[in-house]
Design goal:
This protein folds into 2 domains: 129 residues, Aspartate Aminotransferase, domain 1 (Alpha-Beta Complex), CATH 3.90.1150; 233 residues, Aspartate Aminotransferase, domain 2 (3-Layer(aba) Sandwich). The protein is built from 14 helices and 13 strands. The strands form 3 sheets. A 7-stranded mixed beta sheet has the order 3-9-8-7-6-4-5, with helices on both faces. Strands 1-2-11 form a 3-stranded mixed beta sheet. Helix 5 links the parallel strand 4 and strand 5. It is globular. Bound molecules: pyridoxal-5'-phosphate (PLP). The site of pyridoxal-5'-phosphate has 14 residues, from helix 4.
C-alpha cells in the first residue's frame, strides 16, 4: 500500500493555491514577531487584548506550576480536578452571571462535548451557515437532525423550527463570526428560538473579553439573560490570553455535561498551571477597560483608513476585519506581497470559507500602536491598489 494517491491529492491542492503550510513562530505573540527567522508586524493572532505574553499571566503560570505542578495528571472525574480548575470555574460562573461553569481543554472540545451530551437522533440542531467547524462537527457527531439556516436570518430559522417535530431543539451560533467579524443577530434569533421552545447556544470565542460590560461578550452586549441563552461557551485562548474553554449555564446543564460530555470525561485535565494563569488573565481582561477602549480606537482608525483608500472592508464592528479578495490564488499573492514588506496577515481560503470567498483576515490587538496600524494601511494601499512594485 503506497501513498501515491495522497501525494497526487496534495499536488492538486498546491495547484489550486489551497495548500496550507505552518510558519515557525520564534517569539511570543506580540505585534512584532519573529517568523521563520524574519521580523515582521503581525495582524493575524487572536490575542485581542495583548494578554498572551503579559508579565502577570506569565508569573501566575510559574506560581501555578510551583504549587500544583505542570501536568493535570488525570481526568477531572478521576483525580485531575485541582483547586486551580475549580476556582477558575467559580470565577467564570460569577463573571458570566450564571450558576455554574465547566472547564474544557479547548473550545473545540467544549462545543463537541456539550452538543453530543445533550442531543441524539431524536433531536434537532439548527446552525447558522457560518458557524465554526467545531459546532458543525459536534452537531454531526450527535446524530441529531442537522439543519443550517441562512446567516443571521431569523425568518429562515423560524421556518425550519416550525417544521421540526424533534424532542429537543437546539439553536447554535457564533457570537462573533470568526471569519467575517460580524455579530450574531441574537435578539431576533433568541426570540425565534424561544417561540419554538428551543434552547439557544452561543459560542462567543471572539466576543468574550472584547465586547459587553467588562468584556462579558456578545450575550451581555445585547442584554440577553440566561433564560434567553441557556448555553454560553467562551474560549480562553483568544482575548483571555491562555488556553482552554468553558460552558456556562444552569446547575442541571453543567451536571449533565459532567455525566455525559465525552470530551470532558475521557481526557486529561488542562494543566493546573494554565488554570492558574487563566485566573489572572480573566482578572486583567475584566479590569483593564483601556484594552477594550484601545481596541475600539484601532478598529475605528483602521476602518476609516480603509474607507479613505477605497479598500474592500466587510461590515464588522469587532477586531476581526477581513478584506474580501475572492480567488484563493489572489489572496495568496496579496499575502505574499505584504510579507515581502514585513507584514504578516493570514489568507483564509476554502474550505474554511466558501469557494470564491477567500479573504485576508486582518485581526487587531490592543497591543498594536497607531503607527503600526498606519504601516499596515500603507502596505495595503501599496499592495492592493497597485501603487507599488508588486503589481
Ligand atoms: C477558536 C474557536 C473555537 C475553538 O476554540 P479553541 O479553544 O481554539 O479550540 C471555537 N469556536 C469558535 C467560534 C472559534 O473561533
Amino acid at each position: 500500500m503506497s501513498f501515491d494517491q495522497l501525494h497526487a491529492e496534495l499536488q492538486a491542492r498546491k495547484a489550486q493555491s489551497l495548500y496550507r503550510q505552518r510558519r515557525i513562530l520564534q517569539s511570543p505573540q506580540a505585534p512584532e514577531v519573529m517568523v521563520d527567522g524574519q521580523a515582521c508586524l503581525a495582524f493575524c493572532s487572536n490575542d485581542y487584548l495583548g494578554l498572551a505574553n503579559h508579565p502577570q499571566v506569565i508569573a501566575a503560570l510559574k506560581e501555578g506550576a510551583d504549587r500544583y505542578g505542570v501536568g493535570g495528571g488525570a481526568s477531572h472525574l478521576v483525580n485531575g480536578h485541582s483547586q486551580a480548575h475549580h476556582a477558575l470555574e467559580e470565577e467564570l460562573a460569577d463573571f458570566t452571571g450564571r450558576p455554574r461553569a465547566l472547564l474544557f481543554s479547548t473550545g473545540y472540545m467544549a462545543n463537541m462535548g456539550a452538543i453530543t451530551a445533550l442531543l441524539d437522533k431524536r433531536d434537532g440542531i439548527f446552525q447558522d451557515r457560518l458557524n465554526h467547524a467545531s459546532l458543525l462537527d459536534g452537531g454531526l457527531l450527535s446524530g441529531a437532525r442537522f439543519q443550517r439556516f441562512l446567516h443571521n436570518d431569523a425568518d429562515n430559522l423560524n421556518t425550519r423550527l416550525q417544521r421540526s417535530e424533534a424532542r429537543r431543539k437546539l439553536v447554535v451560533c457564533d457570537g462573533v463570526f470568526s471569519m467575517d467579524g460580524d455579530l450574531a443577530e441574537l435578539p431576533s434569533l433568541c426570540a425565534t428560538a424561544a417561540e419554538h421552545r428551543a434552547w439557544m447556544m452561543v459560542d462567543d470565542a471572539h466576543g468574550f473579553g472584547c465586547i459587553g460590560t467588562q468584556g462579558r461578550g456578545t450575550v451581555d452586549h445585547f442584554s440577553l439573560s440566561s433564560d434567553q441563552v441557556q448555553l454560553l461557551v467562551g474560549t480562553l485562548g483568544k482575548a483571555c490570553g491562555t488556553s482552554g474553554a468553558f460552558v456556562a449555564g444552569s446547575d442541571d446543564l453543567i451536571e449533565t455535561l459532567i455525566q455525559h460530555a465525552r470530551t470532558y470525561i475521557y481526557t486529561t485535565s488542562m494543566s493546573p498551571a494554565v488554570a492558574s494563569a487563566t485566573r489572572v488573565g480573566l482578572k486583567l481582561l475584566q479590569q483593564d477597560e483601556w484594552r477594550r477602549d484601545k481596541l475600539q480606537h484601532l478598529i475605528q482608525r483602521f476602518r476609516q483608513g480603509c474607507q479613505q483608500l477605497g479598500l474592500p472592508l466587510m461590515p464588522s464592528p469587532t477586531p476581526i476585519q477581513p478584506m474580501m479578495v475572492g480567488a484563493a490564488d489572489h489572496a495568496m499573492a496579496i499575502s505574499a506581497a505584504l510579507e515581502a514588506q514585513g507584514i504578516y496577515i493570514g489568507a483564509i481560503r476554502p474550505p474554511t470559507v466558501p469557494k470564491g470567498a477567500a479573504r485576508l483576515r486582518v485581526t487587531l490587538s490592543a497591543s498594536h500602536t497607531d503607527a503600526q496600524l498606519d504601516r499596515l494601511l500603507d502596505a495595503l494601499e501599496d499592495v492592493m491598489l497597485g501603487k507599488g512594485r508588486h503589481n
